[in-house]
Design a protein that fits this description.
Strand content: under 5%
Order of helices and strands: HHHHHHHHHHHHHHHH
Largest sheet: none
Number of helices: 16
Shape: elongated
Number of strands: 0
Radius of gyration: 26 Å
C-alpha cells in the first residue's frame, strides 16, 4: 500500500513559516499557532489526493482505516493525527476491537486509545491482563480504562482474583461504585490476609470502595500492638474515610519509618496536620 506522509508534508510547510517568522512569538504562543495551522492543514484540499486530509480518512470504511493504520506502523511512517482522530471518533467498532487480539504492542496501544473506557471492551481488557503477550505499560493502560468503567467490568474481573492478575483486579474493583457483596468480600478478604507491608495498600482499596461495613476489620487491625507507623497511618486514613474514628494514643518512637519522618521534619498525620 502506498502511503502519504501527511505529517512530513505539514512539517515541511510549517518549517518554512517558522523560519520566516522566527523570534516573533514565545514558545507557548508557537504551540498554539502550530496547532491551529495543523487544523487548517487538515481542511485544505491537497492536489495529490483531490480532497482534504481530514476527508481522505473520513471517507474510508472502518476496516480500511484499520488496515491503513497497520501499514503506517509497518512501513515506519508517522501515523497521522488525522487518522487517529477519525478512528477515535468511531470508537469501539468491530474492526478496532479486533486489534485487541493483536500482539504488536504499538498497535494494541493505539487500539486502547481509540476504544477508551467502552464497556464493549471490558471483557477483553480483563482477559489481556492475564496474558504474557502484553507488557506492564500495556496493562497499566488497560487498568486505567477498566477503573473508569469498573462497575461494567466487575463481572469480568472477579474471575481473575485467583490468578496472576489478582493485584490488577483488586485495584480496579476498588473503584466499583455500585454495592456488590462479591466485590466487598474480595477486598475485605484480601485485607485480612495481607502481610503488614501490604496492609496500607489493601486498606486503601477498602477506603476507595467506600463500604462502612469494613470499619470493624480496620479498627481491629489498627488496634494491634505490633502494627507499624506506616500501616497505622494508612489504616487511620481508611477508617476516617469511611466515617469512623480512632483516637487511641500510640507510641511509634522506636519505629524506623516514624524516625525517618521525624528526622525529615515532617511529623504529620495522613491529613498533613502537625502533631
Amino acid at each position: 500500500m502506498k502511503l502519504i506522509d501527511f505529517d512530513e508534508k505539514f512539517n515541511r510547510r510549517m518549517a518554512k513559516f517558522l523560519e520566516k517568522h522566527a523570534g516573533e512569538r514565545t514558545e507557548e504562543e508557537w504551540e498554539d499557532v502550530i496547532a491551529a495551522a495543523y487544523r487548517k492543514f487538515g481542511d485544505t484540499v491537497l492536489a495529490e489526493i483531490g480532497t482534504t486530509p481530514r476527508r481522505y480518512f473520513a471517507d474510508m470504511a472502518d476496516g480500511q482505516l484499520v488496515e491503513t493504520l497497520k501499514e503506517y506502523l509497518l512501513q515506519d511512517i508517522a501515523v497521522p493525527d488525522l487518522l487517529c482522530e477519525e478512528l477515535e471518533r468511531r470508537g469501539a467498532v468491530p474492526e478496532v476491537l479486533a486489534l485487541l487480539h493483536e500482539t504488536d504492542e504499538d498497535l494494541v496501544l493505539y487500539a486502547i486509545h481509540f476504544i477508551g473506557a467502552d464497556p464493549r471492551a471490558a471483557a477483553r481488557y480483563a482477559e489481556m491482563l492475564t496474558e504474557d503477550a502484553y507488557g506492564e505499560h500495556v496493562k497499566e493502560e488497560l487498568a486505567e480504562n477498566l477503573q473508569a468503567m469498573a462497575d461494567a467490568a466487575a463481572d469480568a474481573l472477579l474471575p481473575l482474583l485467583n490468578g496472576r492478575a489478582r493485584d490488577y483486579a483488586l485495584d480496579i474493583l476498588s473503584h466499583v461504585r455500585e454495592r456488590d457483596d462479591r466485590v466487598y468480600s474480595a477486598l475485605l478478604n484480601a485485607f485480612r490476609a495481607a502481610d503488614e507491608e501490604d496492609i496500607p495498600l489493601y486498606a486503601g482499596y477498602l477506603a476507595s470502595y467506600g463500604d462502612e461495613r469494613a470499619l470493624p476489620a480496620l479498627i481491629d487491625a489498627i488496634a494491634r500492638e505490633d502494627i507499624g507507623f506506616v500501616a497505622y497511618r494508612e489504616l487511620k486514613f481508611a477508617i476516617e474515610a469511611l466515617g469512623g474514628s480512632y483516637d487511641e494514643e500510640r507510641d511509634f518512637s522506636q519505629d524506623a519509618a516514624f524516625q525517618k519522618v521525624k528526622a525529615a521534619g515532617a511529623e504529620t498525620d495522613i491529613f498533613q496536620t502537625k502533631k
